[in-house]
Write a structure and sequence with these properties.
With 376 residues, the protein is an alpha/beta fold. The chain has helices at residues 26-32, 55-63, 75-85, 98-109, 125-132, 150-156, 179-187, 213-219, 251-260, 268-277, 281-304, 327-334, 360-374; strands spanning 40-41, 92-95, 115-120, 136-141, 161-167, 194-198, 226-232, 245-248, 316-320, 339-340, 342-343, 352-356.
Length: 376
């Protein structure tokens, strides 16, 4: 049977794609290395603190309703988000993580012949979604300070550019754009582009000059680039296990995304807990303060060991592996010590790893493991 006759033939655009590689379950690592306890996971930029205990009652209340499909339009959650952000519910799309919003955007707005411009390294899903739809990614290397190179990105924009992707802060570099930088960049974008402002870590940012992407959406003038703001409950809200994200955009665009959004895409408990989490301001403030305190402590420990890192802004740090280690080697050597970090080799940074700021005891375990492996 020839390739063309095969019932398993896929679209040609998938030939340039590689599947996203998830990490192994923590239980598998524990078993493999005969660890007494589950390893410390500092690899996924999660909030290390469990969600508020009062959300448990809401979760349990949804159990008796699991024989019914969830609300296919996330009506109550979208209404709550609309009230919080003073933006019409018709301009809010909810998905299984903000990844799904990007997936829907790709299906609705990208096709062969179009391009996207993004940073490099940056969140890998931007390029994956473009390739999936047959569009061409135009990755632009970050500058020497690991900041997004805005001038170089502007030069890559052409008549076929559809997306311009700005994660703020950028993952994995943990660098952010100021209000002024963002404003000047946006005002120079041509009107045929769609600016994707990925604010996955918005609730963790405390810098006075950090911009709010929704302001650009609300003040957009006719003829300016379109704006989509992406946010999630998977980071500061400590609900990554439920997978809830959302996008704010013009209702006109949102209506197109609903054409490609899977029905019943956000499960019932996820909708209920996400809506309730919007009211947990005290939890956000408390966990944010703890994370920032621990982040600063980790930086001092790196300084003491003369380990280089990129000055961070959120709850994760891009760290240069010390000595002769590569990031991948250090990742592998830390596993038997019961610590999981993220190798940056897939991002083209072979000498770096990414560290999520954990709880104090988790960070202490990481530091002890680092000293053991590196001989500090």
């Amino acid at each position: 049977m020839t390739d063309k006759e095969s019932p398993y033939r896929v679209r040609d655009s998938l030939n340039r794609l590689q599947a996203y590689e998830p990490g192994k379950p923590m239980e598998e690592i524990q078993a493999k290395y005969n660890l007494d306890e589950l390893p410390v996971k500092l690899a996924s930029n999660e909030n290390p603190y469990s969600p508020p205990a009062q959300l448990k009652n809401i979760y349990e209340q949804e159990f008796s309703k699991l024989n019914r499909y969830p609300d296919g339009g996330c009506f109550y959650l979208r209404e709550a988000l609309a009230d919080k952000y003073d933006w019409p519910a018709e301009g809010i799309v909810v998905g299984a993580g903000s990844d799904e919003i990007l997936d829907c955007l790709a299906k609705a707005t990208l096709e062969p012949g179009l391009e996207i411009v993004c940073g490099d390294p940056s969140f890998v899903i931007y390029q994956m979604d473009a390739l999936m739809m047959g569009a061409e990614p135009k990755p632009v290397p970050v500058d020497d300070n690991f900041d997004l190179n805005l001038e170089a990105m502007l030069k890559q924009i052409g008549p076929q550019t559809r997306w311009v992707c700005i994660p703020n802060p950028n993952n994995p570099t943990s660098r952010y754009l100021s209000k002024q930088e963002f404003k000047e960049f946006y005002e120079r974008l041509p009107g045929h582009c769609l600016l994707l402002i990925d604010e996955a870590y918005f609730e963790l940012m405390t810098q006075p000059d950090y911009p709010n992407g929704i302001d650009f959406l609300k003040t957009r003038n006719a003829g300016q680039a379109g704006v989509v703001v992406l946010r999630t409950f998977s980071k500061a809200y400590a609900l990554p296990g439920l997978r809830v994200g959302y996008g704010l955009m013009e209702p006109e665009l949102a209506s197109e995304l609903h054409k490609v959004r899977p029905p019943f895409n956000v499960n019932r408990p996820a909708q209920a807990l996400a809506k309730a989490a919007l009211n947990e301001a005290e939890f956000l403030e408390t966990s944010r303060k703890k994370i920032i305190s621990e982040r600063e402590r980790l930086l001092k420990e790196f300084d003491r060991r003369q380990i280089n890192y990129v000055p961070p802004s959120a709850n994760f740090i891009l760290v240069e592996a010390p000595g002769d280690f590569t990031g991948e080697q250090l990742f592998e050597d830390l596993l038997p010590e019961g610590v999981i970090v993220r190798s940056m080799a897939p991002y083209g940074l072979k000498n770096h790893f990414r560290l999520t700021v954990g709880r104090r005891e988790e960070n202490d375990q990481f530091l002890a493991a680092l000293d053991q492996v590196c001989g500090f």
